[in-house]
């Protein structure tokens, strides 16, 4: 046969060379279509192979659709399969011709051989033609009941395919319910696993009605279902185990003993050779223990060895995926990994994406005891032939220096870099020395002596040049040649392409001028003139600004441009802790690899199964679906979103942990408790959110200094306030207002048992509130913690009320925070709101 | 859950392309390939195995010089997809015997058949070669393994891991032998990759052994297998510092950690270090392990550079093979980066040295010294005279090195981990199957600093 190699020349589909060949094929297929001659099947096979090979390389062979279908009347299963593959690819574009295939597919769905039945059913569901869905329902229904498990696995996925073509047909045929039944009763684990995948996708897609979907999602996460899966986890294939574990990671156990049971059950999954299983297990462990500091730290200790084994046993690609997760954990709790630093040493033949991660980890785990060795190792890489890695290594040394360990030795090393006389080494080292001086001005004497020897001609990279110029300006009194070096740089103003460098030059020459006016005056004049003529807006503006300042008053100018500086103690971290927490929430997903939360790189509908439990209904706000709300920070600290995440999950688990922590039965091989108590904040520092230790919600209100209004029985009096029943507010306005307005009222109520019961369907509450002209804009959470954002507007004017309402059904507490455009009306509104709640039976 | 799967040749041609969910645009393979190529050309090294372009996540693994890739728009588990890609490659290899561009092109219909069963609508159904057998109807078209270029040391690493050249690993699991009957045999390979970094004074800075016990079974009737390891084997180094070089190197084997294949039963492992399993068809790792316990490195490397006079320097590399003389290391390659301003190198081997090659790679300024064979206990020296185009600045040792070495040593394992016996618990009495237990050690990162 002809391998696709033949057609490599025409890899682009529109090339005419493919066309002649396709029409050749067409006529040959037509000749063979009716043939029953011996050997016809063999000839067909060859032709089919050709068709598929064209399809593979992207040549459009949809024009032979009719002929392919005609040829498909065969008992040769290899031919059938090729034909199905073809049909699946082109049916969507040829709905009329696709109808022709229905007949033989339906017939095959009733074949004696389960293999043929499964195959036909799979192909039937893969046609993706909306007006053919009616033909799918029957075969799918019998497929789900088939006695052969292969057919059932195919049928379950078939239901999902149908759902994507026509959700209503799928729901009308009651297939989701059938899947649910199969999921809980089928004897074949792959059938069960497929049911779980299909149901998760169906109930988290936007097209299902929110109330039913959320109820079903909750069912999937309910204790009986989760336990049903966990108890038979070993019967599942390794891939299905990952799905089960992903589900388990979202489950919220009711108490500690449940947590330990689950962990003991899953303990041996950490020894699995498949990295995906191990990472999924780790996610369960980490998320379950989030609120139990000591155990959480033990988990870190426990998972270290399996992770390191995975890193070194797989292909470089696999180890990269695992290493990314290790990286995340190291960044969260560097202390725990500080004695393992040698594992993060780079091997010379590792790809640079692995080396980069390792360098970051080395930087993170550096502490008093290992800094010397780590820095020595990094200096070896700095001389490396791999230049990008050499640069990263130097930066790593600098970062460690800024972490304050053994600065003395490091400064010496950095200065040695400057003497190595390799352009890129010098460049990186200059940038570092600058940062170092900003933090440790006391080292200026040693550094300046070396920096002064560097000829500015050897420094070409903008960042390095800017650093050098900054030092020339800052330390011009100690560097004899400073004014003259600056002057020569200014002479070459026009050759300097980087605006950043020119900006620095302006500032440096100003500083130099204040310190050594007579020597610098000429250079300053030249710089200001050049700056004013500069085409770059910022450079021009800065020059003009300096010029006017000097004109106005030289002393003031000095105070503005060269004030006494305080040493920088902490350099701004690039990633906020919320983002980091969000990534941690999405452990074992791409978020960890990209070091970005999923909303930054996926569309809403493709967030995947990692999120659905966080959202109730389709009421999410804005483009980003959910982000942490940190009570300690308030929303303004938070970019956009108002839905639940880590913070609340912890709150959920908070009350559980209120009691005295009892020693875990979890695993005797773990480090002893006493060891972990000596540094209790290690694990805390990572998972928790600043300012929000797992405390009771009361403390949070105190934190805000708002005082806690007594839960004194509010008297519902008929309020004069009238609300607009058709109020509208778009989510972004809501968020903006929520950020801007102060809290006018904050209250806490006790929820009645009936209320707790009614909240099993939170949507009911939303509808109820709506009848009271209080509209829900977003809601989220899972039992026992629910969070709602409501709004309301006055009937006669556009003044709005915004309400955050958190209900915890296990502690039977509800907290509300009200913000209002018209603060004076908030009390009245509050009573209205309470009335509405109490009518629902919540209070 | 993935959306598409495809395999690209080194030049970027689609060899197979399967769209499971039609959520990602058709030209994704092209976008992917361009990105990977561009990455390299930009001097940023290899493209990472996972990246995102316009909301599409691209995954890939390199196997046998081919790119196995998948796409999805969903935020999936990265390990899940990469493990899957690797596994698909393995299943295909089980079927085709040899995995390369040629065999894949010849068998692409069979590969489509496999892909249809392995994944449905993006969800993994099964990756078990054995389970798949019942639903695969194409016969593999064999490519002639003998015609393949011999697997040099580079090729071994190109395959991403632990493959040992030999006929056994090029046999398809499904195809019958020319004689008609299947030969009853089972292969157990203990493959160790060792990493050692020597300081300039010859002291060991770090060392690690990453080992795999790999099994490939051609036994009929799925008999139970018992594998017994060293009885004194212990796992976990609790209570001791991880890099503890004070012990003498003999004594019990202590693994830092290990993991096991799904099918392995560990019921008696804690008692007598025996693994019980029913091997499924195809190749799979029974156990992966990692060891940082001190061991005796097979080679000692001694290298130094001296500046003879201006613009001249001399490099001396000595290698000592510190293993038994009955053992022979092969495909040894020693490499050393030289100063960028090196223009000419002349080599000087010991008199009588056979099977040695020396080369100066002008493009990346590297010295290469190849040795076909090294017999245990022997010693080899290379001298190289360098000519520079400019004077070195200061410390020349900062401009060269480190020396790195790759090698393969059959029938040698550095960890001393052993398969004491391999027992086949056969229900039916047939001919005694062939049992092969083979050891091989390869260099992973074997480096000496100057």
TrEMBL record, chain A:
GO MF term list = clathrin binding
Q: Spans of biased composition, class Low complexity?
A: 1-17
Q: What are the boundaries of the region Disordered?
A: 1-41
Which keywords annotate this record?
A: Membrane, Protein transport, Transport
Residue span(s) of domain Beta-adaptin appendage C-terminal subdomain: 721-838
Q: Which domain of life is it from?
A: Eukaryota
The reply to whether Ribonucleoprotein figures as a keyword in the UniProt entry is no
GO CC terms, sorted: clathrin adaptor complex; endomembrane system
Read off the Pfam families from this record.
Adaptin_N, B2-adapt-app_C
Q: Which Gene3D superfamilies match?
A: Leucine-rich Repeat Variant, TATA-Binding Protein
Cellular compartments annotated? Endomembrane system
InterPro entries named among the record's database cross-references: AP_beta, AP_complex_bsu_1_2_4, ARM-like, ARM-type_fold, B-adaptin_app_sub_C, Clathrin/coatomer_adapt-like_N, Coatomer/calthrin_app_sub_C, TBP_dom_sf
One GO process term, biological-process aspect: vesicle-mediated transport
PANTHER family per UniProt:
ADAPTOR COMPLEX SUBUNIT BETA FAMILY MEMBER
Q: How does it assemble?
A: Adaptor protein complexes are heterotetramers composed of two large adaptins (beta-type subunit and alpha-type or delta-type or epsilon-type or gamma-type subunit), a medium adaptin (mu-type subunit) and a small adaptin (sigma-type subunit).
Q: What does this protein do?
A: Subunit of clathrin-associated adaptor protein complex that plays a role in protein sorting in the late-Golgi/trans-Golgi network (TGN) and/or endosomes. The AP complexes mediate both the recruitment of clathrin to membranes and the recognition of sorting signals within the cytosolic tails of transmembrane cargo molecules.
Family the entry assigns: Belongs to the adaptor complexes large subunit family.
- The name this protein carries in UniProt is Beta-adaptin-like protein
Tell me the organism: Rhamnella rubrinervis
UniProtKB/TrEMBL annotation, chain B:
Sorted UniProt keywords: Membrane, Protein transport, Transport
Q: Where in the cell is it found?
A: Endomembrane system
Top-rank lineage group of the source organism? Eukaryota
**Which ranges of the sequence are coiled-coil?**
none
Which residue numbers delimit the MHD domain? 183-449
Indicate the transmembrane segments per the record. none
Which family is annotated?
Answer: Belongs to the adaptor complexes medium subunit family.
Can you name this protein? MHD domain-containing protein
Q: Which organism is it from?
A: Rhamnella rubrinervis
